[in-house]
Amino acid sequence: MIEEHFDRLRILTAIIHYGTMSKAAHALDLTQSGVSQHMTKLERTLGRTLLVRRGRQVLPTPDAHLLCDHTRTCLAELEQAERLLQQRDQKDTERIRITTSGLIACEVLPHALKQFMYRHPTVEPIITAHDDPLAIEAAVRSEQADLGLTVGPIADTTLEQHMIRNFNHVVICGPNHEWAQRNYITLNTLNEKELLVLPTTTRSRQYIDSILRKAGVHCPPRMELASTAAIREMVKLGLGIAIVPRFAVTADCKAGLLHAITLRSTHIQQDLIALHLPGRCTDTANSLIQAMTATVEK
Length: 298
Description:
Number of helices: 11
Distance between the termini: 68 Å
Strand content: 15-25%
Radius of gyration: 34 Å
Largest sheet: 8 strands, mixed
CATH topology of the largest domain: D-Maltodextrin-Binding Protein, domain 2
Structural class: alpha/beta
């Protein structure tokens, strides 16, 4: 019965707080006659006198004070519950904006996100892909992204960098290629061999070309393709060989669609790096970096 008249208990609490029915009515945006009627019905329901009227003033009885004390406790609990619900709603809408390359988005992020989402089920990742590393850095600088994932080295000193892991490159060929039974070759074996390559503007192409030049190895481009994924598909069709990150071909090698050959004596390695603005790495972003570190294969 008390639950049915909770609104009336709130009115009673306001009357005791303000001292008069008129002030309580004004605070609750009710009419004074409406407040008086609610109190009359509450007293009738409980069978007790709650207010003693003396002119404009009303004096609460001991029963009214008892009800008021418990009503305040209930109201405080309700307010706390509302705050907790609001906090949960805020968590439900928390987002982390990630910008990275198409290769990392397809081959690295899914494994890390699986672990990350298990720990943070209420966080919504928003992922955008840029094949140009400079566009990734620009998105982080302009606060269009909370976290950038790219391949190092990074010359921009205005961004904080976290080296997630370094990764090796391997030579890949189709399952019917003459090298399909070889597990190791030297860099010199590639001399004068045509390669499927990325555009010269990409950081990975520039890095691999510098390694080949230092070793005195010349590899003419057989075909220039826009992405590592495109190179991978061309190699599957037997249209050439290429040097790519090992993590980009792990699944295809296990499926027998490609064969990976390790370079002996020479390691072509690059760093997978997380970027963010100085002092702006949130706990959520840091947790994703940790998930990346734990799941990226060398």
